[in-house]
Amino acid sequence: MPPRFPHPELSVFPYNFLILLRVNQGFICWHVSEGSLSIYFLNRFILAGEVFYLKYKGLLCFMQGWFRSVFRFFYFAFTTCYGIAGFAWAVIKGTPKEIAGKRFRTNWLSRIPHRLGLRMTVEGTPFKGTCLYVGNHITYIDPIVVLMHVDANVVAKAEILRWPLVGYGAYLGGTIFVKREEKSSRTEAANTISEALHDGNSILVFPEGTTSAGPGTLPFRPRTFEAAFLAEVPVQPIAIIYDDPKVAYIGDDTFLPHFFRLFKMKYIFGRVAFGPLLYGENTCEEARQWIETKQMKSVVKPVMHELT
Predict the structure, then answer these.
(1) Which of 12, 65, 84, 171 has its CA 20 to 30 A from that of 219?
(2) CATH 3.40.1130 placement within the chain
(3) Is residue 173 scored above 70 in pLDDT?
């Protein structure tokens, strides 16, 4: 029995739609449903009973991942632009920028991760009070998979401001940018972090300062840990682990090519592990050791996910 799809269900736009292209004696069919893309070759096109009969599924499956990544890119771009417009309108109406920014971040996070195929399991309990969250850094989606579970401002490198849409969206969401090669910028960022913690705002930082594929971490930079100690707030280590090594954004990777390669995958699986609260002057080394131990326990044969 060939697969069937009720016609009314396929007609829903924008998250469920159908594109047909006539070729020879049949049709090439692109079917998008809830962010997943399927491609078929139809040798018959039957509307009787409002049912499509699709006979040769998978003839062009090798193209499926690229169509998926393109769809996700435009969804990402549209949702981000929509959120930026909503932020601007809220500020025009008199909403404080900080509140409008948090609302923009919350709404964006409620839509984007699932559509991008992020399927991360959570271990441990995220601390809900004021906290310095510190995690290992593998790729640019690390802040997303953490912010799905905590409310915090992210510390990121200033280069992200040049990334299309991402930079401005991150800025509106309250990201603290730092030029790591400039001492004055590092000092300014440290002061901003300290003020935020004293004011009761949590901070998410990746103290390696750059990405690495792991397992294991690069040396942690201690300055933000000193700010947490002076503000008398706890440090919570977070171990981020992805099943597929292709997720890592390292070396000579650039954003757009890596984005399209990454989001060809139907799902991105992994784990976000929240560790114990740490207090005192030695939290930098304690956090790094906890994250490395969690990573090493999770070292298994990489799982490569099919683009189906």
Answers:
(1) 171
(2) 68-297
(3) yes
Q: Which CATH class is domain 68-297?
A: alpha beta
Q: pLDDT category, 28, cuts 50, 70, 90?
A: low
Name every residue whose Cβ is closer than 8 Å to that of residue 172 and which is 6 or more positions away in sequence: 83, 84, 87, 100, 101, 104, 105
Asked if pLDDT for residue 266 goes beyond 60, the answer is: yes
Q: What is the pTM of this model?
A: 0.75
Cα–Cα distance between 308 and 297 in angstroms, integer? 30
